[in-house]
Amino acid sequence: MSRTTRTDAQSPATHDADSHDMIRVHGARENNLKDVSIEIPKRRLTVFTGVSGSGKSSLVFDTIAAESKRLINETYSAFLQGFMPTMARPEVDVLDGLTTAITVDQQRMGGDPRSTVGTATDANAMLRILFSRLGKPHIGPPSAYSFNTASVRASGGITVERGAEKTKTVKATFNRTGGMCTRCEGRGKVSDIDLTQLYDDSKSLAEGAFTIPGWKSDSQWTVQVYAQSGFVDPDKPIRSFTKKEMQAFLYGEPTKVKVNGVNLTYEGLIPKIQKSFLSKDKEAMQPHIRAFVERAVTFATCPECDGTRLTEGARSSKINRKSIADACAMEIRDLAEWVRGVKEPSVAPLLTALQQTLDSFVQIGLGYLSLDRASGTLSGGEAQRVKMIRHLGSSLTDVTYVFDEPTAGLHPHDIQRMNNLLLQLRDKGNTVLVVEHKPEVIAIADHVVDLGPGAGTAGGTVCFEGTVEGLKSGDTITGRHLDDRASLKEEVRKSTGALEIRGATANNLQGVDVDIPLGVLSVITGVAGSGKSSLVHGSIPTEEGVVSVDQSPIRGSRRSNPATYTGLLDPIRKAFAKANDVKPALFSANSEGACPSCNGAGVIYSDLGIMAGTATTCEDCGGKRFDASVLEYRLGGRDISEVLAMPVTEAEEFFGSGEAATPAAHRILQRLADVGLGYLTIGQPLTTLSGGERQRLKLATHMGDKGGVYVLDEPTTGLHLADVEQLLGLLDRLVESGKSVIVIEHHQAVMAHADWIIDLGPGAGHDGGKIVFEGTPADLVAARSTLTGEHLAAYVGA
């Protein structure tokens, strides 16, 4: 009897282990979440929806994924944890049923110019081994084919201690063969510096001769090192320097000098600039720094390696008449075919692994990339899909995969392929959590969680959870907008001129000639990799009057906020200073007005070594960040901390009229409201903003630029269906104010709203790079001659 009972208890249908089939979240309060409690089914595909800023990322990334990673880190020894980033426990009462979380986000890959698609995915490592085994002539080990490894030769005496012997000098030699081109140091490009962009030689250092961003003669330490080094006369114009002074000024070796009693290192201006600017990826720089580098530095293909980054020896070794440089320059789908043609039993396991990796690129829709493509040039969507490569063939199951808008940057034609990949991961027994706005992805969900109802403080609650059908019939913003369809315009605007592009050959463009109409809303579309960005960013002249808002990420510390990023804080500080007859610096939490206890951070950070650090609200300022004496000064009855705590809409009204009227601040706040960020607090740390919010914050800052042509790169990224309508209204207002708007976009609502469409294709990579359609959206739908036309026709129901 007892034996029968025991057998029943262990049967698959009633096993205790099966009761842990939910991820349970209770009392989540991270960022704007309001005591969220929810149960998410495991081994299912769950999509999280809601307007931008509603709390999706706070729940999925900052709570569930963050706690999973923290718990995994705690399984390592205290010694190893000391080398890992410390992670604080999320603000949540209970998190139960977690599994190992793998996050695949949209963070750009690699700021290092030597980082490529091949190095980021290990495909390069496998190719190097392949060539070191089969390449003819044989030139050395895998390092001989690596552009990140320099050749090193050394010999000399080394001191060795053995047992009772005191010391013994032994002659030793060291030799390592590397593939790095010595001229460009593995970067593929060489640079020359225009000295006229670094300083005004008619001025002395004391008069502020430097024209480098951030180098101020009165307070900047770097400038003081030059002025007080003793190598040059700081009161003499640079053009009057002697040969010896100019040599020390431009090319001086690193030397210790004393400046204001502090030991610092003096170094010539040229090597200083090379280390500060040229060793970093230009694409990852802040816009004003990038603009300076583009003015001051000319980049040219390295004449010695012809841009391959590799030594002559590495390029001379070949397999089937292809060198490793040739292999890395091929489109990955072509490289996959070439690898299939390599028949050598001795490296069969390596060939199989390399083939699987390359096939994964093609499967995921990135077959048009090449392995030598710099990873910093990938879009957010491309970077996310590259990160997926290593997970597709993984044998791990019962893992939680977390995706942040995996369809970003994808043409409607490619979304089905991405859906299949997500379902493939789920069907292997994994839990897949996806933050997404696209109806096509929401449609395949097993479970939907809708957050809202609004954004920021108006969000942070679960409005709906259940099936897709339930969402459609539910009364939530997402449910109501899920079947939204923008209609084609009955009448399109007439152009006022044209931006002529002739013979464009950037990247995969095949001698493209096109006229982009001015004075209207033009949309550039086509499948991923068809040449849209190459046409717009690589061919449109970057002359004055063209304002480009690309996808490069906003960087900011926890001290940065919308007020500092947009320049809004400057007129606010000046208004406070004028009203109270004091210095503007008092109203900066990063300057004289900072609370002395927390240095203007508002919280006290305690480093607990291997344990997660803690942040406690500063007792002296109560988290307000300012010294108590500063808070006594008021403008319009509010102190500076109260103003920074205002949402954009309230601040817009506050600075729009009355005693606090400040036109400069009001204009910036209007632009923030125009892009749909009216709910943001102007003093909210940038680190708490979602990807979509950061994109729109960037757009708002550029709206103040004086330019006649606006170029926007996928402005719908991170936007909820309900917000797309507001974006279309903003684009219309820009056009009606006399601007020309050129948008790279995949969203069908933006295509339908366009006055003119330029469609590139027909495919990606070498199958693209041609204009396959020019005309109005109505003509594109009527013709249905391209993939874009077919999908747009289906979207508008034509």
UniProtKB/TrEMBL annotation:
From the Swiss-Prot or TrEMBL record, state where the protein is found. Cytoplasm
Keyword field: ATP-binding, Cytoplasm, DNA damage, DNA excision, DNA repair, DNA-binding, Excision nuclease, Metal-binding, Nucleotide-binding, Repeat, Zinc, Zinc-finger
- Kindly give the InterPro entries that the UniProt entry links to this protein: ABC_transporter-like_ATP-bd, P-loop_NTPase, UvrA_DNA-bd
Would the keyword Nucleotide-binding turn up in this protein's UniProt record?
yes
Q: PROSITE patterns attached here? A: ABC_TRANSPORTER_2
A Pfam family annotated for this chain is: UvrA_DNA-bind
Q: What is this protein called?
A: UvrABC system protein A
Lineage of the organism? Bacteria, Bacillati, Actinomycetota, Actinomycetes, Kitasatosporales
